[in-house]
Amino acid sequence: MSVWLVTGAGGMLAGDVLARLAADGIEAVAAGRADLDITDPDSVRAVMAQHRPAVVVNCAAWTNVDGAEEQEEAALAVNGTGPRFLAEACKESGAVLLQVSTDYVFAGDGTEPYAENAPTGPRSAYGRTKLAGERAVLEILPETGHVVRTAWLYGAGGPNFVRTMIKLEGIKDTLDVVDDQRGQPTWTVDLADRLVRLGRGALEGTVKAGVHHGTSSGETTWFGFTREIFRLLGTDPERVRPTTSAAFVRPAPRPSYSVLGHEGWQQTGIEPIRDWREALAEAFTGLVEAERGIASTGE
Predict the structure, then answer these.
(1) Which CATH number applies to 3-159+184-218+259-273: 3.20.20.140, 3.40.50.720, 3.30.70.120, 3.40.50.300?
(2) Is 126 a catalytic residue?
(3) pTM reported for the whole predicted model
């Protein structure tokens, strides 16, 4: 039985990857920050030697987009150098590496979905550091390295936009939400499914190394996304009002267009992730329970 190593095990996505592996009967090692420091090559080598995984799913990342603007070197250590160390260790052992990346590697000013091979051009420190990680993996592991870009992630296992909107719906009469940024809300359960299927395909030799886009089908804005959340809550979507990005100035520039194309999946034999509305509807009960359960216990 092949062993899988999942880094960043305390995070929202990693939790769903581990749950999916368990459901499939696949032995997995959950490596949190205390177990594995991907910025330390000695730590990486030691964990790889101990567990000898056939597949490594790297969910460890610096995710503070605004914080990366002021601490780019620290973000680069996690998002760029860490994946390089993992890739080098995977090359030595022959393991497959699945590197989770982001839409922020693109300029974010497109008008049609970004293809997997579209030119990159990050406009934020976060995007630059994630692109460095992509390049390291693809350079070191041309045959066994897989980059999976995702965006607008939500899930029951951690703080995210959907859970925040569920909370705010209960305490705000109205909400102003930006309507000039387009993207693809993506459930971590759906992404975890594709990561596991990619890894299995890589081991079986049916999936070639390269870049994959792990986002939901369809597209919307944060405003449209919030209105759908309110509709599923059974409240009036008119309580959500459109505004522009100018109303929420942040240290890091946000992409105005984060829609990713999915044609690359045709070469894998794996279908793209379903429409974002369908996924949100299925996920919603668990999201409400996760958010309101935490709120009720005061945790």
Answers:
(1) 3.40.50.720
(2) yes
(3) 0.96
